[in-house]
Design a protein that fits this description.
One of its GO terms (cellular component) is plasma membrane. Pfam families: PK_Tyr_Ser-Thr. By secondary structure, this protein is an alpha+beta fold. It folds into three domains: 50 residues, no CATH class; 105 residues, Phosphorylase Kinase, domain 1 (2-Layer Sandwich); 224 residues, Transferase(Phosphotransferase) domain 1 (Transferase(Phosphotransferase), domain 1). The chain is globular and about 80 Å long. It starts with 6 loop residues before the first strand and ends in a 6-residue tail after the last helix. The chain is 34% helix and 15% strand. The longest helix has 24 residues.
Length: 399
């Protein structure tokens, strides 16, 4: 072994046998996801941090048994994902698990990449039918290809948990931009800048495109069942990506969070029929998306309906009582000159949140209305841009 060599990484190669004594001279020796056996050289660790040596001993003492199911060509190793599940990389906590921002070194070109890893702890007892259903749905979503759906890169299945690895979305969830703290790429809290109306409408269109694809272009149709602002993620350009298609919810056994329905969905977003029937169709997504549209137009949260309960009921009663949609609009976008478009989206949201599933439009119809609205806004912006203010022409009118 060359005396100038200080680092070797051979992780995720399934190499067996003993660790060579010459490895003791290295400052860093990364050998995760292999099948080494025997004793660790006694001098190994003299040039390596103690924790690395202890981690290596632990891995040799007990081989981690993870089943990797890839859905894309993976540029990271299993070991890189497992090492990234640290407290400092934790960016989100939920009822079904934790989400980590994990960086890795690209195995192909050495560049640095980032993924989001959702760690889902499995219930002590999980019904075999639910387990099979989870596996089936995981495979379906792993093969979905759409610009407005977060890519599921792979799944790592262990004895105590499952790891779902997704593309990382730098701007986090829509929920945080509308209602909470916004965190940047490094997980640090940033000053929240209210989203303007063109951005909000773009998010609505992107989300509708993702859901429309699942409902109308997939065979059989796929129903999300938990559409909400925290499951709509935004990339670095604020393009919307729909995430978490019911995967985590299926893994929950007894002791599910009180904020979740025993059937499926989240309070504030659940269609009324979810309370009395397990046989639901894609119209439950339409209802939930209607609530999202109301959040985008009013700035209110899904459960901010006051005495009326949910936001959908509040919006309907507001219209029935003759209330002004302008008065209900989020003050951050109320004076941006898009009142007509905002009113269209508000009324569309009321249609989507009808208590009767048959009265709700399809996602294909919803998308078409939003696209028309977006085109109308685009034409309005072009007109504004091409209109010359009177004061600019004034000097030429002087005799």
């Amino acid at each position: 072994m060359s005396s100038n060599l200080t680092l070797i990484s051979i992780e995720d190669n399934q190499i067996g046998g003993n660790i060579p004594a010459a490895a003791a001279a290295l400052k860093e020796f990364t050998a995760g996801s292999n099948r080494f056996s025997g004793e660790i050289p006694t001098s190994l660790g003299n040039g390596m941090p103690l924790l690395q040596t202890l981690d290596l001993r632990r891995r040799l003492a007990k081989q981690d048994d993870w089943k990797v199911t890839p859905f894309q060509a993976l540029r990271f190793s299993e070991g890189a994902i497992l090492r990234g599940l640290t407290e400092e990389n934790l960016v989100g906590r939920g009822g079904s698990g934790h989400v980590y921002r994990v960086t890795y070194t690209n195995r192909r070109n050495g560049s640095t990449g980032v993924v989001a890893v959702k760690k889902i702890r499995r219930a002590e007892t999980l019904d075999a039918d639910l387990e099979r259903e989870f596996e089936s749905e995981m495979i379906i979503l792993g093969n979905v290809r759409h610009n407005n759906i977060v890519r599921l890169l792979c799944c790592l299945s262990g004895a105590e948990s499952k790891l779902l690895v997704y593309d990382y979305m730098g701007n986090g969830s829509l929920n945080k931009w509308l209602h909470g703290d916004v965190r940047g790429a490094g997980g640090h809290t940033m000053a929240k800048v209210p989203l303007d109306w063109p951005t909000r409408l773009g998010v609505a269109v992107g989300t509708a495109q993702g859901l429309c694809y699942m409902h109308h272009d997939c065979t059989p149709p796929i129903v999300h069942r938990d559409v909400k602002t925290s499951n709509i993620l935004l990339d670095s350009e604020f393009r919307a990506k729909v995430a978490d298609f019911g995967l985590a919810r299926m893994l929950m056994g007894a002791g599910a969070p009180e904020t979740m329905s025993a059937v499926v969905g989240s309070f504030g977003y659940m269609a009324p029929e979810c309370a009395y029937s397990k046989k639901v169709n894609e119209k439950v997504d339409v209802y939930s998306f209607g609530v999202v549209l109301l959040e985008l137009t009013t700035g209110k949260g899904a459960n901010d309906g006051g005495e009326h309960g949910g936001l959908g009921d509040w919006a309907r009663r507001h219209c029935q009582s003759g209330g002004s949609i302008r008065d209900a609009t989020d003050k951050n976008i109320r004076y941006e000159g898009y009142c007509d478009e905002i009113e269209v989206v508000f009324k569309l949201a009321v249609m989507c949140t009808s208590s009767s599933p048959s009265s709700r439009p399809s996602m294909k119809d919803v998308l078409q209305i939003l696209l028309n609205c977006s085109e109308q806004m685009h034409q309005k912006n072009i007109t504004r841009h091409n209109t010359t203010p009177e004061y600019e022409a004034a000097p030429f009118l002087v005799p």
